[in-house]
Structures are given as structure tokens and as C-alpha cells.
Amino acid sequence: MKATWLAQLAVGWRGCAVLAVLLLLCFALAAGSAAQKSVTVDEYQALPHGLAILKTGDFHLATGVPVLPSVLAALPLLGTSAVLDPAPMRQYVSSWQCGKQFLLENIPWQRGFDPSALPGAYHDYFLLGRLVSIATLLLLCGLVYGYARSLYGAEGGLIAAACACLSPNLLAHGRLVTPDVYLTAAVIAALWASDALLRRPGWQTSLPLGLALGLAALSKLTGLLLFVLLPMIVAGLKIADWLAARRSPSTDRTARNFGSENRSTWLALAGALILGMLVINLGYLCDGACTPLRQFDFQSPTMKTLQSLLPGWLGVPLPKYFFLGIDEQLAETGYEAYLLGEFNTTGFWSYYLVGLLVKTPVPVLLLCGAAWFWGGRPGRREVPLLATAALLLLFFSLARHKNIGLRYVLFLEPMMAIWIGRLAAAAGTAKAMRRARWCLGLGLSCLAAVTLAAWPDYLPYFNWASGGPDHGHSYLLDSNLDWGQDLIGLRRYLEQEGIEQIDLAYYGRVPPEVYGIRYRPALPGATANEPPKAAGQPFRPQTRHVAISANFLWGRTYLVNGDARYWLESAEIYKPYRRRKPKAIIGHTIYVFELGN
């Protein structure tokens, strides 16, 4: 049969060239967007905390705060003039204090308000850290290509890589100094390595899997779930193989080979799990490893129960602060969740499902459906991919712990890209195969158009079926929409319009004056130089222009480190402005209103 244009494009030097172009495009989109966006909420503490660890080797603040992403992103800062005095770190109780110290030490406050001099090196340091994250994003896209190629051939690899490189959600979080893209890359690496281990069990495949598992846990505590899920999935596959073997006639020799293969698989998997634990310990420099259980002061009921059931002399085979991070995560409560116009503190079981439907590009959703219907029955090698995606989505949906961002299930985006790659291997009649390829070509073209049109505003991306980013507040808030990323855009707008000062209610950690913005804190009862005196007072603008972050406008309350400039206690304070037509919407996140004379 004559090779299709896609098959000809995917092999040899052409395939390498196309992949290189896709990665280059991904880099250009991510880096260009990163340069135009101000420091987001979680970045404020992540990069300084990583630098503090590099300077001191002190992990006592790394309880629940991922170590690997922060440290890797901070490495380039060691070759710069970035300032962070390590002396106060021992007294800190939160990594957010590192963020405040880094801000104060790297902004030339003594020169007063000089828009031409701000934010200076402070923002540039975060750009360096973001480049490390972008490199991880490119690595992720390469892993997607390799995994999909091993499943579906060269064509499937290119299709999956294209979907990953052009994913607005991956571009949004792959350019930030936050842990989500690091965890996502480690999850895909673990799935690819587990696929290799199941086919060729041995130390050659056990080592990559163990490394990926350890890096996933160092990237985010979510990675620990893989230590449980992958053995469960392997056990399920082995049970299915055993049942199939019982239904078919076999010789004693075949049975012996089957048993030998099972032993090899379980030994390789056990080695990978042990290596993963070793990688976690090495990531923390073995700080506090094997600390007796009795020496821990747990906060969560789960860990307290565990402590009471096990002997106190038992050493915990994990770093002390990593293990305390698990306890901290289990003890956390009271996160305010928002979905479809409603707030609560218990979360929504449908949060991540709705989030995927409104924030995943429509072409990707349609191609996933086409891959299911035209790709044939899922094969045995696809089971780990599908089972991991389903079980992780189920876990986060039922846990309902942190309904504050689709980024918590960001790893589902490259999994969908890999799944779409199976369209390249679609079986059936020639007519059905042509239909699948036409659908694929049209879908990828639409995805490219959607992603290019959304640049550089990838964080607030919502698909056209949901109404787009300006209607995203109807579905989700927080890091799905507004993470304090548009101070640069606001400053440019104020300069273009000749607006010297503005009333501003900004959802973020970095003071707006760092980006050269003259403003009054637009919070209840606030004046130019003092914070609100009482909660619940109505907002009285003092200037002609008012700018309100989307989270505040639509009722997301917030308190940052006790700083009243970023405090919103009542969800109804800006309700009258929801009925006003804004003069401008900066980056889909900051609403600018012009009041009458």
C-alpha cells in the first residue's frame, strides 16, 4: 500500500525536522508569553525558596512545598547578582517569608518610585527560572513523542507531539516556576518506563522507572500516588493474563515460562520502587531519613492514628521534612472552591471534569472521541495509560481537597495527546482510515489556530464552547483564570491611556509598584497610605479609573500574609461593578472601569 503523506513526513530526517520545528514553536510561544507576564502568586515564594535551599541546604520549610522544581529553577540565579541573605531562614516558618525577603532585597526601594527603573532585575530573575521550566516543558513534549511513537509508530509520535506542543494549558503552566510541569513530565516518563518494564522486565527497565517515580514525588506529593497505582495496574494486567492462560490449553513448559516472566516483572517493579524511595532521600540529601516514628509531631488524624498503631522505634524510610509534608497535606482543610458561580469549602466532585471540558481546546476533545471510536479496541499496552488517567482523575474528584486549579491534573493533557496519536494506527476499511486522517488534519489545524490566537494569554484560556476567557469566571476562578499575571499589561495600558493613577484591587503577591504602577489600594475603607479600618465597608473610588482583578470582581476572597493591601473579606464588595461595562480587560484578568466625572 502506498504510504500516506503523514507516514512519509514522520520518518527519517523529515520526522526529525518536523519534531524540531514543533519544539521550536513550543519554545517561542512559551518564552514569549513568559516575558510578558508578571510574577504569579505561587512563583513569588517558589523561586526564592529554591535559592534559599541552595544557599543553606536547609529543608525545614519544604513540608508540602515541592523541592525539585524550586531548586532547579533557582540554579541559574547562582551565577547572577541575586541577593538573598540566608541568615534569617532558620527562623522562618513559611516559604512565603523567603518570597518577601527576596522582594525587599532585590528591588531598589531607596530610589523611590521610578517607573523606568522598576521592576529591574527582580523580574529578570524569575525569567531565568522560567527558562528552566520551559526546558522541562520541551522535555515533556519529547517524552510524549517517544511514548506515543513506541505505541503507535512514528506517525503517532508526531501527532502526539503536535498536540502537546500546542496545548494552551501546557504552555500556560510550562512557563512558570511552579511544580506542575515538572510532575507532568515525570508522570509521562514513569508511564513510558513502566510500559518498557512490562515488555522487557529487568534492571535495564527498572532503573528508568525508579528514577521517574522518585522525581515525580520530588516534584509534587501527588507523585507518591504512582508508587501505589502502578503496582495495582501491573497486578490487574497479570491477573488478566492468568485468567486468559487458564481459558486456553497450554503445556507445562508454557506455564513455567509464564511463572518465570511474572517473577521477573515483580522483581523489576520492586527494584524500581526501592530506587524511587532512594531518589527521594537523595533529593533531600538524606536529611532526617530513618527518623523514629515517635519523634514526629503529627497534625493530621490519619498520621496520628498510624503513629499509635506502629511501634515508636520504627524508622521512617523517607526524609523527615518530606514525611512531614505528607502530614501537612492531610491536615489541610478549608480551601475555598468555586465552580459554576458557587463557592464552598468542601469542594465539588465534578470540579476537574468540568474544568477539563471548558479549558481543553474543543479540537482536542473531539480528537480524543475520534481516537476512541476509530482507533479500535484499546490494546494491552494502552491499559496503563488509560487506567492511570482514570484513577488519578477519580482520586482528585473524590478527594475534593484542593479545587483551586486544573493544574492539579495537568498530567491529563499530555495523556490525551498520546491517546490521540492512536489515530495514526486506525484500522478498518480504506474509507474509514481516510476519514480518520482527514479528521486528524482538520483537528490539528484548528488546534494550531486556537493556540496561536490565544497567545500570550494561556493561563486564562477557556475554549470557545464555554464562551472563551472573558466568560471563564462563569465556570472557574483562581489559577484557572487570574493568578496575578497581568501587571505588565496593566502598566502598558496606563501608559497608552495617559492614566497617572488608578484605584486598584489586585489579586497577587507582588506589590504593583514593583512594576511601576501608581495606584491606591481599592479595598474597603482604604486610603492611599493606610489599610482598611473595618471589614465590610463599601468601596469608595478616589480616582476616575478603577481596576479590579477578576478573582476579586467575581467574589474570590483572599488574604496574603496579613497584608491588608491584598485583603478581600466579602465576596459582595465589587458586585455593583459586575453590571458595569469595563473600559478594558487586561489579559482577560484585570477589569478597568472608567467612572463619571
Main attributes of the structure:
single chain; 597 residues; alpha+beta; 2 domains; two-stranded antiparallel ribbon
Q: How would you describe this structure to a colleague?
A:
With about 600 residues, the protein is of the alpha+beta class. The protein folds into 2 domains: about 450 residues, no CATH class; about 110 residues, no CATH class. It is built from 21 helices and 11 strands. The strands form 4 sheets. A 5-stranded mixed β-sheet has the order 6-5-7-11-10. A two-stranded antiparallel sheet has the order 1-2. A two-stranded antiparallel sheet has the order 3-4. A hairpin with a 2-residue loop joins strand 8 and strand 9. Helix 10 packs antiparallel against helix 11. The chain is globular, with a radius of gyration of 26 Å.
Brief synopsis:
It is built from 21 helices and 11 strands.
The geometry reads as globular
Order of strands across the widest beta sheet? 6-5-7-11-10
Rounded to an integer in angstroms, the radius of gyration calculated over CA atoms is 26 Å
The total of beta strands comes to: 11
Secondary structure elements and their pairing?
Blueprint: H1 5-10, H2 12-35, H3 43-56, H4 67-74, H5 95-106, H6 121-165, H7 168-173, H8 180-199, H9 203-219, H10 226-247, H11 252-283, E1 291-292, H12 301-309, E2 315-316, H13 320-331, E3 337-339, E4 342-344, H14 351-359, H15 362-374, H16 383-399, H17 412-420, H18 430-454, H19 487-497, E5 502-505, E6 519-521, E7 545-549, H20 550-553, E8 558-560, E9 563-568, H21 575-578, E10 584-586, E11 590-594
Parallel strand pairs: 5-6, 5-7
Antiparallel strand pairs: 1-2, 3-4, 7-11, 8-9, 10-11
